[in-house]
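Record passed on here:
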Amino acid sequence: MNLAHLHLLLNHFPTVGMIVGLGVFVVAIAAKSDDLKRASLLIFFGIALLSIPTFASGTAAELALAKTPEVSTAMIATHETAAFLALGVMELTGALAWLGLWQYRRMSRLPQGTLVAVLLAGLVTFGLMARAANIGGEIRHPELRANTAPVETAAANPPLARVIGDAMVNLKWGWPASETVHFIGLCLLFGVVLLVDLRMLGFMKGIPYSTLHKLLPWGVLGFGVNVVTGILFFIGAPPDFYVNNPVFIWKLALILVAGANALYFTVFEHAWTVGAGDAPPLAARVAAASGIVLWTGVIFCGQMLPFFGHSF
C-alpha cells in the first residue's frame, strides 16, 4: 500500500463528511440544540484535518497515473487546482469550527457570528469539494463526462498549486522566509502545548486550567501557520520529494492524531474542572503525555525529512 492507495481511500471523505456535517448543523439550528451544534463543529474540524493527507496523497495518485497514457493530463491539472482551492477553504472552515468549540467552552454558548461564518464557509467548502471530486472521478471514468470526445493528452497549463510553489522557490527570499515563519509557528504551537500538557501532568499546580485555556487560540494559530507554510513547501518541492518519503507519511499520521488529541483540551470537561492546586484526573494526564510525545514526533519527522527516504 502506498499514498496512491491512501488517496483512493480518503478522497470521498471531504465531500461526504461535509454533507454529514452540514446536515447535522442545519438540524441543530432547527432544533436549537447546542450539543448537535458542537457535534457538527467537531465533524468540520475532523474533516479539515483529514483533508490535508487527502490532498497530499493526490500527488502520489498523479504520479501513478503519469504511467497511463490514455489519461488526460489537462484534467489532472484541473482536478489539482480545484482540490487546492477546496483545501484552502476547508482549512478555514475547520479553524472557524474550532473557534466555535473554544468559545462555547469559555462562554457556555455559541456566538451567532461564529455560527453564520461556519455555515457560509461550510457551504462554499462543500461546493468546491464536490466540484473537485466530480473532476477527479471523470479522470478515470470518461463515461461520466458530458463531452465524450476522445481524451486530450496534450500538456495542460500548470496547476495553480504548482504555479504558487514555483513562484516561492524562484524568489530568493521565498523558501527562507517560509522556513522562518514555519519555525515561529512551530514555537508558538509547541510552547502552548508544553504549558498546557505540563500543567495536566501535575506541574504549575498554582495555575487553574481555565487560565491556560486562554492560550489555546495562540497554539491553534501556530498550527495554522504551520499548515499554510507546510503546504507551500509541499507544492514548491518536486512532486516525488515528499510522497515517496516514508517519514512524510509518518508525519501526516502524527499530525492527524495530535490534532485529535488537542480536541480533548478544547471540548471535554475533565481538564476544564482542574482548578488551582488540583491534581489532574488520569485521563487528562494520559492525554497530556501523549500530546507531548505526538508533537515531538511531528517535529522529529519534519526535521528528518531531508535525511531519510532518499530525498537527496
